[in-house]
Amino acid sequence: MSTATVVGAGPNGLAAAVALARSGVQVTVLEAMAEIGGGTRTQEAILPGLFHDQCSAIHPMAVGSPFLAELGLEKYGLSWRTAELDCVHPLDDGSAGVLHRSVGHTAAGLGADGRRWRTLFEGPAARYDDLGADIMRPLLRIPRHPLTLARFGAPTLLPASTLARTFRTEQARALFGGIAAHAFRPLHYPMTSAIGLGIITAGHRHGWPVAAGGSQSIADALAALLTDLGGKIETGVRIDAASQLPSADLTLFDLAPDAVANILGDRLPARIARAYRRFRRGPGAFKVDFAVQGGVPWTNPDARRAGTVHLAGAYAELAAAERDIHIGRMPQRPFVLVGQQYLADPQRSIGDIQPVWTYAHVPHGYTGDATAAIIAQIERFAPGFRDRIIGHTVRTATDMTAYNPNYVGGDIMTGSKDIRQLIFGPRITVSPYSVGVPGMYICSAATPPGPGAHGMCGANAAAAALRHLGR
Q1: CA distance to 248, 256, 462, 467, per residue, from 268 (Å)
Q2: Mean of per-residue pLDDT scores for the chain
Q3: Half-sphere exposure (CA, 13 Å, Cβ side) for 120?
Q4: What is the domain count for the chain?
Q5: Do 238 and 405 touch, CB atoms closer than 8 A?
Q6: Which CATH number covers residue 18?
Q7: If you count DSSP H runs as helices and E runs as strands, how many of each does the chain have, helices first?
Q8: When comparing pLDDT for 307 and 1, which is higher?
Q9: pTM score of the predicted model
Q10: 454 lies in which domain range?
Q11: Are residues 396 and 385 in the same domain?
Q12: CATH value at residue 120
């Protein structure tokens, strides 16, 4: 029987392990931390019984993942829950851009921009299952649905700022811009529309769900399936050098490229080692979890029903904040993302004490304290929020590295999603998962299709590894 070692038990490492085990490979997963899950871990962070997702929280890309969908993970306790509204971007005048799962309902709320929204999203959302089969795999390959991909792909080449200018209302501009800003890139850069268009289209097809019980449920379900398939998981096992790797036919790394280079050292071809060590990092995230009595008192009523709330005011303010963090300057009013997962999944709360998940976009490696800025942004759109806080915990941009070594300097995207790294991954190649050593592969979010709990980086890398075995 062929054997494999997977280093890292985040969702991609676990997905890779499951894909290999389903093909009859004996798999062992080695995880440095005491818990599996990587960015999908969930903890009782402030009060016993109050559950907070520690990083990844809302999953429009995971619920429609071609790989996860075929596994039957509901048998292992994974179920999806959605709030009444997917995302709201409030403005200072009390209005908001509101994202419904329905394209039609979203368009109806955007007034003069309703027709434009329909044009952009109605067709791609209806064909998302075919589209996802292509965009969730490396782009430098023959697509399965070329016409669908071509129609969707043309506007993804544009800067988000260009696409935003096609909208006439501030509500539509801000709504689209806030979602595009998930890329952690200045919005006037080419291809910054890509991630926003992908997330919105996926959400219009499948919604923006949370995992019942917390994002940890995704990792736990994958781990349970892996165990049923005969795989093993060992926690508390840190790999720092190639000499520590068990002998195996295949080795897959759910690690950042520079970590792979450090482990393999001279075993890597020189050109690949250089590319991995020059891998570009993106801005950081500064995370604060709150315990809030009675929830957030948003001025806009739609924000009280939304699983995700984006805080940045008008589009121009958002764009300026993203420019600032890219050049290493902390904005006075950063872009803040707020998760109200309890609206979809009430079991996370204790009575009327609600777990509120937030993070701000900050410069890479930011050493300051953004807690007050996050509270101020929420208070701006929800006066009285500060008085409802029962407690809070902070994870700074530099703390993120200790939480997950892939998140150096708070870079929760595992690398800058500039054009080159978004398309190719850590190096320019048609084989983004190969590390240039026979039988060894990288499967982290540094590879296509990038961040999220969808597991597709792992599944794609496993497919490459199985081809190496002739399967």
Answers
A1: 17, 15, 20, 20
A2: 95
A3: 25
A4: 2
A5: no
A6: 3.50.50.60
A7: 18, 16
A8: 307
A9: 0.95
A10: 3-40+211-279+415-468
A11: yes
A12: 3.90.660
